Amino acid sequence: MTKYDLKRELPTSQKQQDFYGKIRVKITDFLESKTGRASRFAPYLLFAPDLFHLLTKAMLDNRIDGKSKALIGSGILYFIAPVDFIPEGLIGPGGFMDDIIVATFVVNLLLNKFSPDILEEHWVGDQKLFDALKKISETGDGFLGKLPARSLLGRFIKKSK
Q: In total, how many domains does the chain have?
């Protein structure tokens, strides 16, 4: 047993891929609508499926240790959980903003622990966005360390005694 255990099993690889596709379609449809084009969150929303994809691929990477994979798994589960801080079911795609914050927090921790090349291999989004993640990581945990992501992830990680 590791120091951190996930409370729930991770979805299968196929379910993760299906979820990624559903997120991308849902957000793309929203961004093409009048409401989506007017949303102040529009430029950030497509970051959600790319971060989800990065986390799922990092989970399978054998260069990443078990403790880090527990954290990654928690980030994946936060995306998939039907109830979270800002539920997508209530406010639509704008509800992915908290998922983006949690995933960015996880990726920041990974970038501080592992070579950025490892994560860059799994990145499928806009390169400028990944470069921005690296830049945030290089400035330390100043901004991201102040976000409530650690307590949000705590719902999914159980410390063993």
A: 1
